[in-house]
């Protein structure tokens, strides 16, 4: 048998040592298969009460985790080598300066010139070596600004409208095609109240400005006013009450580096810090046991729908009858809203009219006619007796009730398809959205042309404006939600994938500026409403 010489042995050891610090950590498919086979053979030779299928599943899961951490380790080594290379170049440039032969002024000029050259070299080298990393950082930054916080699941059909209560306790309301309206705890996602008084699709929900009363519009040609009483559940304590720290999980795991079932366990059990090692280990082994026993959660695809009873909405208190019913329409009531003060309400219908009612007596005060086709939405001004109605006739109309003796109307023309919604915002501005894939900002003093136009790639549904920050939330038919400012500048697009975001048409958006956890809500025909945390200062800073 041949014997290696000392020099050959030392050379081979040095070569192996260099390999351990290089990219040789990444294994090929063949080596992975050999390793897996070797591990299985080792396990088969050991005494174990686990079935062979369970043991193989465990090996596969641990292999996935090991490969993910190997990739992270490789990236770390590459970055370290880049840093060492740049440090060597920096040291080399410093050695070229001979301080003994240069005066103070010459040294300063030469150092400045050398620093400028080195800075340019660093920029070029860094840009060339990290373009892929920078690209991934952009996605991560966008996700860090717009975070999905809570999903509200319990409806059996699509959700048409979402609204937030204006009084304490602050709750979330949803109106669904399953003939019900649900009230939710924003913090816990638990259903608090279920309204079942309608016999048709519930198309909109709005909360009274000062009382615990809700107004819902329905396909049964009526609008109902009903009272609710809720007691908010106590939210579970968290290790860190700071919202930004609670959302650390999303920015760290946004690149899906860990298996999806593990990520969902982290969210479910509110582990937001990667430094919480005991909790991470506990949840890791918990989700492995679920994987082994076949209890893993269902992965939703674009063709799947969540179970309507997922959050147990049938267990919450039920309101079966309204305080009063508004019944003057001859067609579907598509929307309703409270006038300022809450003593009157306005409804919009497919019978091409909008009606103004006295809430206390349920009497019809005015019937607003003029639209040529079905109405799609109505909205009231927060401080003045103004109403805006939208229609399929490509127009929206402004109705002025500030003077009791004169009820003036102004017609806004500018869209080429159905106007899906028009809402008031700060000052004398109105924002309208349309199926023609545009959103327009109007000045009430100049009806001839919009002051800003936003062009999108999909039909726009019921929009909402963050009045304090002048940000428009646009829900689209193509499942996207985009944020724009009032001048038409795009600010962000909410994250969406098979695991995050809406999986069907997004029907409506609603801001809740003062809530510390969720300040934007959206709903869609995937039977769920979603609460988002939008970091508005960071969003506006990136603008």
Automatic annotation (TrEMBL):
<dbReference type="InterPro" id="IPR020472">
    <property type="entry name" value="WD40_PAC1"/>
</dbReference>
<dbReference type="InterPro" id="IPR015943">
    <property type="entry name" value="WD40/YVTN_repeat-like_dom_sf"/>
</dbReference>
<keyword id="KW-0963">Cytoplasm</keyword>
<feature type="compositionally biased region" description="Acidic residues">
    <location>
        <begin position="298"/>
        <end position="312"/>
    </location>
</feature>
<dbReference type="GO" id="GO:0005737">
    <property type="term" value="C:cytoplasm"/>
</dbReference>
<feature type="repeat" description="WD">
    <location>
        <begin position="152"/>
        <end position="194"/>
    </location>
</feature>
<feature type="repeat" description="WD">
    <location>
        <begin position="326"/>
        <end position="367"/>
    </location>
</feature>
<dbReference type="InterPro" id="IPR036322">
    <property type="entry name" value="WD40_repeat_dom_sf"/>
</dbReference>
<dbReference type="GO" id="GO:0005634">
    <property type="term" value="C:nucleus"/>
</dbReference>
<protein>
    <recommendedName>
        <fullName>WD repeat-containing protein 37</fullName>
    </recommendedName>
</protein>
<dbReference type="InterPro" id="IPR001680">
    <property type="entry name" value="WD40_rpt"/>
</dbReference>
<feature type="region of interest" description="Disordered">
    <location>
        <begin position="1"/>
        <end position="36"/>
    </location>
</feature>
<feature type="repeat" description="WD">
    <location>
        <begin position="368"/>
        <end position="409"/>
    </location>
</feature>
<feature type="compositionally biased region" description="Polar residues">
    <location>
        <begin position="22"/>
        <end position="31"/>
    </location>
</feature>
<feature type="repeat" description="WD">
    <location>
        <begin position="412"/>
        <end position="452"/>
    </location>
</feature>
<keyword id="KW-0539">Nucleus</keyword>
<keyword id="KW-0677">Repeat</keyword>
<dbReference type="Pfam" id="PF00400">
    <property type="entry name" value="WD40"/>
</dbReference>
<dbReference type="InterPro" id="IPR019775">
    <property type="entry name" value="WD40_repeat_CS"/>
</dbReference>
<keyword id="KW-0853">WD repeat</keyword>
<feature type="repeat" description="WD">
    <location>
        <begin position="195"/>
        <end position="226"/>
    </location>
</feature>
<feature type="region of interest" description="Disordered">
    <location>
        <begin position="298"/>
        <end position="320"/>
    </location>
</feature>
């Amino acid at each position: 048998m041949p014997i290696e010489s000392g020099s050959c042995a030392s050379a081979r050891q040095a070569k192996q040592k260099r390999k351990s610090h290089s990219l040789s950590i990444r294994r090929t498919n063949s080596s992975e298969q050999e390793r897996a086979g070797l591990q299985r053979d080792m396990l088969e030779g050991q005494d174990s009460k686990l079935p062979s299928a369970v043991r193989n599943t465990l090996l596969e899961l641990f292999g996935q985790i090991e490969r993910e951490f190997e990739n992270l380790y490789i990236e770390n080594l590459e970055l370290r080598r880049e840093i060492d290379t740049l440090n060597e170049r920096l040291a080399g440039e410093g050695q070229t300066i001979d301080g003994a032969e240069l005066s103070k002024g010459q040294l300063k000029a030469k150092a400045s010139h050398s620093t400028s050259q080195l800075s340019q070299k660093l920029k070029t080298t860094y840009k060339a070596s990290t373009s892929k990393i920078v690209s991934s950082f952009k996605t991560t930054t966008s996700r860090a600004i717009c975070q999905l916080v809570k999903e509200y699941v319990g409806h059996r059909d699509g959700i048409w409208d979402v609204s937030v209560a204006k009084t304490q306790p602050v709750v979330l309301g949803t109106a669904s095609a399953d003939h019900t309206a649900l009230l939710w705890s924003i913090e816990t996602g638990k259903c608090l109240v279920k309204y079942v008084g309608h016999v048709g699709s519930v198309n909109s929900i709005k909360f009274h400005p000062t009382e615990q009363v809700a107004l819902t519009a329905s396909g049964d040609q009526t609008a109902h006013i009903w009272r609710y009483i809720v007691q908010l559940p106590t939210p579970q304590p968290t290790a860190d009450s700071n919202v930004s720290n609670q959302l650390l999980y999303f920015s760290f795991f946004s690149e899906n580096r860990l298996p999806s079932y593990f990520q969902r366990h982290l969210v479910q059990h509110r582990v937001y810090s990667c430094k919480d090692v005991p909790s991470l280990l506990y949840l890791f082994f918990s989700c492995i046991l679920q994987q082994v026993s076949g209890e893993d959660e269902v992965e939703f695809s674009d063709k799947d729908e969540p179970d309507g009873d997922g959050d147990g909405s049938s267990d919450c208190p039920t309101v079966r009858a309204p305080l009063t019913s508004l019944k003057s329409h001859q067609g579907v009531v598509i929307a309703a809203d409270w006038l300022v003060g809450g003593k009157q309400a306005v409804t919009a219908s497919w019978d091409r009219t909008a009606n103004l009612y006295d809430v206390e007596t349920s009497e019809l005060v005015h019937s607003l006619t003029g639209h040529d086709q079905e109405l799609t939405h109505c909205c009231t001004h927060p401080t003045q007796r103004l109403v805006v109605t939208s229609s399929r006739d490509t127009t929206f109309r402004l109705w002025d009730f500030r003077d009791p003796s004169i009820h003036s109307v102004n017609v806004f023309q500018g869209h080429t398809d159905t106007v899906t919604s028009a809402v008031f915002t700060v000052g004398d501005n109105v924002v309208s959205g349309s199926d023609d894939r545009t959103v327009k900002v109007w000045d009430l003093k100049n009806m001839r042309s919009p002051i800003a136009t936003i062009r999108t790639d999909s039909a726009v549904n019921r929009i909402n404006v963050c009045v304090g920050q002048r940000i428009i939330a646009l829900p689209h038919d193509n499942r996207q939600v985009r944020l724009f400012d009032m001048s038409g500048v795009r600010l962000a697009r909410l994250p969406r994938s098979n695991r995050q975001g809406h999986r069907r048409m997004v029907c409506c958006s609603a801001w809740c500026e003062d809530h510390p956890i969720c300040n934007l809500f959206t709903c869609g025909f995937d039977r769920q409403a979603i609460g988002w945390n939008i970091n508005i200062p960071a969003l506006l800073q990136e603008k």
